[in-house]
Amino acid sequence: MFFYLVIHADNDSATTSKLKVDFEDLEKRDEKNHLKKGLSKSLHQMSIKYKELKQDDTREYILRCFMYAITGGTTEDDIKVSLDRIVPHIFGNHDSCREVTWCKYEEDPTNFKYRSLPGGNPLTNESLKEELLVLVSKYTSQSNAIAELGSTQANESFNQMASSKAPKSRHYGGSCSLKNRLSAAVLKKKNEGYSYLPKVNEASNLSPGDFTTSLTLKMDAKRKKESRNQIKKNLRKGGYLNYINLFSFRIVVRWSGSTHDSFMLTNSSVPVYMELIPNSWLLGDSGYPLKKWLMTPLLHTANDQEVRFNTARQEMSLKDLLVC
């Protein structure tokens, strides 16, 4: 039996209290997305009082500074130190910024300007400074809970997926159709796409239906196009670095351990991403197929050039290529 002693969730005290009835040693840790939303809400409330925060760019910049501090530390002390440097940084004091990479003041102190603050200048409102210091102290006191942030984004995604077939506004949870509704939601959104409908018909000894088959193909094509457009948009917005990090931690748990690696790769979203990222490659072992973006070793070397290719491929670092 497995016991999960740490839970990452929002600050819903009722849920935590109920869980602690059965799990006395349960530790509550903050969740990244809810933490970010809470910070954003606090800054928005301050904008009612302070005109400096009425611009979206200014609030987003301060929010980024907070998230740099919170996610950049590995211990409680690291987070406390990082949080304490935020307000001085925003108000033009960079004495404590020497140890961080996100502050560029040390590179050119004379010409340094803030990209997202009005006029490129630091904030000067002392009353706003005091309120931001109070906000910092609030999160400093919670450094234990935010030292190891988790993410419930996968859970939220599945909840949204399930609600498409079993909305909360209707009491499907108490009906015998819930299992089939959840299965349909997962098939449509995650595994098969809309093409699961003709397959269900065939499994039920029904005609797949020409109209149903044609419609599901169109809907799957539309879904795939929207997905590719979103990927392109994210690439333009965030650059390629975020996708390099994505592939470094790509985990597929849909199939059993006996499933071949090449099959899982083909049925994942990785090929879609790699087709859109120019001049990038993955390194795969001999179990993967050779692609223009996937470099595999030569199984049988016939000359010195091929031997050197295999040797060089093995010695390439993460700086040179993406690793599969």
TrEMBL record:
UniProt entry keywords in alphabetical sequence: Metal-binding
Mutator-like transposase domain sequence ranges: 4-103
Record protein name field: DDE Tnp4 domain-containing protein
Residue ranges of the TM segments: none
Segments forming a coiled coil: none
Metal-binding among keywords: yes
Lineage, top ranks: Eukaryota, Metazoa, Spiralia, Lophotrochozoa, Mollusca
GO molecular function: metal ion binding
Cofactor(s) it depends on: a divalent metal cation
Pfam families: DDE_Tnp_4, Mutator
Claim: Metal-binding is one of the keywords in the record: yes
InterPro entries attached to this UniProt entry: HARBI1_dom, Mutator_transp_dom
Domain DDE Tnp4: residue ranges: 251-310
Protein's organism: Mytilus edulis
